[in-house]
Backbone:
């Protein structure tokens, strides 16, 4: 959900507060911020804008006869059906909207299939509403930004529970989980790849398009050459990481001489911690 | 010779960067937010490449491997400041004993020997802030240099060396270890006297409410009355049961297909 189809703006993105950057203000140890002080002014301005918009609608209604009839028939206080797609009006003034936790798997397992089917559409509507609000608050601070994450988590949990039930049925009846199969395949370059299998109307040997897309592995000198170079690259990376880890451990010993050696050995199993602790770099009194 | 000397001089390697700081489970519990949200908020992800084979998985983020006094997911936190190019080394600890509301004795500084209550815990830096102790008085000045107020701000204390937990029996600092009671609860035990050090009620506190009983339910929240068991086990899949309810019958015979 994080990946938005935004064009690349370069360094401008850092200056703009996108919805992901508009995080909840810290209540603990938070200093006074200009946003909180300006809330009163914002409310006044909002109410003023609403009045002005209402006036505009009234004046336009007098000009056209159709609009007059609609305004007379539709009661003013009843909620508009399109309001479902936006935040409820009570939450407009709030800086922070607090909601409960997402649906856990244990809660969803209690519910019947038809209930889950209904709940899915409730969550889908909520997610749709939150996405529109995120688009509206694109250059502002959105209240309660974690709601979208909570809805998505509960949707994911719901899907998992449905899959669980279907799996139980298929394993009992057919002996297989009725899910999409995966397997490891060798690519043309000689590297292993996870392949998610797909449904086709013709067999593999006749499907030229598929064979072009996923070329099979053939023994070749160039492939061997590539693989040796690739392995060398990986090994060099491993060595460099080991040197970096050693330097980290040395600097830790310099700063905290009474550090837990066993814990360091568990976190860095490739290094010999006792040998490093006796070395000069670990024991020097000057802090880097 | 003097022209070649700078070429011969060995270039100094830059100081090694410490490993990336992870948000601890204690702060996650305090946050009461989804884990993915905390991850995204701490990193400050502004842009992420879309999924697809034509994109390299990459993200544009503002996190600089620094966690300070402010919460990592906070708006306009210190993580986003451009001045901080400093990333601290943190001593790895096997166990964590300090929680909110604990009675604690300061061992270092001008307030050494005094006891106070823990206000804030930051396990990412091994920091503890004790209320009213180990602080500094700062003056807030006008543009003209006129002092209009003073503020007392507490400074953090390093956990293993500068602060110690207090035994509730004799009110003296002790070493602590984790133990289990006969019922199987995990408790802190003082090494000197063997007395249990209980957790305070402030550990239940989260970013949004002081205790779960105080939480005010929203309109869209599901209440406890709605959480009844409606599931009845049947030998059908999810799709079959829904189709049965809606009156959909499937008579079509599927064509032969190949999976690869």
Residues:
């Amino acid at each position: 959900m994080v990946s938005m189809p935004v064009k690349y703006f370069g360094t401008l993105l850092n200056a703009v507060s996108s919805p992901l950057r508009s995080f909840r203000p810290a209540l603990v140890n938070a200093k006074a911020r200009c946003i909180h002080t300006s809330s009163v002014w914002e409310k006044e301005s909002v109410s003023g804008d609403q009045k002005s918009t209402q006036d505009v609608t009234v004046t336009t209604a007098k000009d056209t006869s159709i609009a007059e009839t609609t305004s007379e028939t539709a009661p003013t206080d009843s909620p508009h059906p399109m309001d479902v797609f936006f935040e409820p009006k009570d939450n407009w003034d709030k800086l922070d909207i607090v909601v409960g936790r997402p649906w856990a798997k244990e809660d969803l397992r209690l519910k019947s299939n038809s209930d889950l089917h209904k709940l899915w559409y409730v969550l889908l509507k909520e997610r749709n509403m939150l996405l529109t609000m995120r688009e509206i608050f694109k250059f502002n601070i959105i209240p309660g930004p974690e709601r979208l994450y909570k809805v998505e988590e509960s949707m994911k949990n719901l899907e998992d529970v449905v899959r669980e039930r279907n799996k139980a049925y298929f394993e009992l009846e057919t002996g297989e989980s009725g899910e999409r199969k995966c397997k490891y395949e060798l690519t043309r370059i000689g590297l292993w790849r996870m392949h998610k299998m797909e449904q086709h109307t013709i067999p593999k040997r006749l499907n030229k398009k598929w064979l072009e897309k996923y070329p099979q592995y053939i023994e070749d000198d160039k492939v061997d050459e590539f693989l040796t170079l690739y392995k060398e690259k990986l090994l060099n990376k491993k060595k460099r990481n080991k040197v970096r880890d050693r330097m980290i451990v040395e600097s830790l010993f310099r700063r905290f001489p009474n550090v837990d050696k066993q814990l360091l050995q568990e976190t860095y199993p490739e290094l010999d911690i006792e040998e490093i602790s006796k070395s000069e770099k670990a024991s020097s009194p000057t802090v880097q | 010779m003097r022209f070649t000397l700078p070429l011969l001089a060995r270039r100094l390697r830059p100081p090694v960067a410490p490993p990336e700081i992870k948000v601890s489970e204690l702060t996650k519990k305090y946050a009461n937010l989804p884990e993915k949200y905390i991850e995204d908020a701490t990193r400050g992800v502004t842009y992420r490449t879309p999924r697809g084979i034509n994109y390299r998985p990459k993200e544009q983020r503002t996190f600089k491997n620094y966690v300070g006094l402010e919460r990592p997911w906070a708006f306009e936190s210190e993580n986003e400041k451009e001045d901080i190019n400093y990333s601290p080394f943190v001593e790895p600890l096997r166990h964590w004993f300090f929680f909110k509301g604990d009675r604690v004795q300061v061992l270092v500084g001008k307030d050494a020997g005094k006891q106070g209550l823990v206000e804030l815990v930051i396990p990412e830096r091994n920091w503890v802030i004790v209320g009213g102790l180990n602080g500094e008085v700062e003056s807030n000045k006008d543009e003209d240099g006129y002092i209009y107020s003073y503020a007392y701000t507490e400074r953090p204390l390093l956990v293993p060396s500068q602060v110690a937990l207090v035994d509730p029996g004799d009110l003296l600092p002790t070493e602590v270890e984790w133990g289990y009671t006969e019922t199987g609860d995990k408790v802190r035990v003082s090494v000197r006297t063997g007395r249990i050090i209980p957790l305070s009620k402030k550990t239940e506190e989260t970013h949004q409410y002081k205790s779960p009983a105080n939480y005010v339910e929203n309109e869209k929240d599901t209440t406890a009355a709605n959480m009844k068991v409606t599931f009845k086990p049947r030998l059908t899949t999810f799709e079959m049961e829904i189709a049965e309810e809606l009156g959909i019958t499937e008579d079509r015979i599927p064509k032969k297909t190949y999976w690869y």
Chain A touches chain B through 77 residues (CB under 8 Å).
